[in-house]
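Following up on my earlier thread - several people asked me to post the actual chain instead of describing it. Fair enough. Here it is, all 192 residues.
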Amino acid sequence: MVEISEAKLEDQEDLVEVLVPVFSDKALALLGDAEKAAILLPHILKAVEGITLLARENEKAVGAILVSVEPIKLPSEISTIMKKELGYFKALRAFRLMRDYERSLPKRKEKEALLEAVGVVEGFRGKGIGTELINRAEDWLVMQNIKHFGLSVKTSNPAVRLYSRLGFEKVSTFQNKLGHWIYMQKTLGSRS
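Reply from S.P.:
Thanks for posting it. Predicted structure:
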């Protein structure tokens, strides 16, 4: 049986294990190496104002979700870490790509949370874990008086069907140097 709980500081290794594959395409484009995301993700997790949930089955991390209620403000040490790991010019390129991505995102509505990442470990997909993580995050957001839940997803990502099934609607499309994206949004309290 899968148990879902709010992630704690000591869960960082499990979160990295589950979420790094979710960020792999962005990490590869930004950093030139998807494994570098494992170094940066703990710093990103600390910077998120919102909720992070972890799904476990028999103590093994099998899924996670990261939802922000405010735009993420990365700590200054990210810059130092990226320069050390990538070198100055690759770090500068990565920051430019991140800025390009952030600028291309549709503007958040007032009281809108953003699904930053959701992932389920291979072998556990198709069992409703992703749906349950999203539903639990949505319940938490409603208790926080958040009115809208948004997300961006690559147009080629099969998760678009899951998000549609959960009541997210396509609001717009956008593109940047990382690819073509769909922005989807749900008014909370309208769970299907």
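The chain has six helices and seven strands. That should answer part of your original question.
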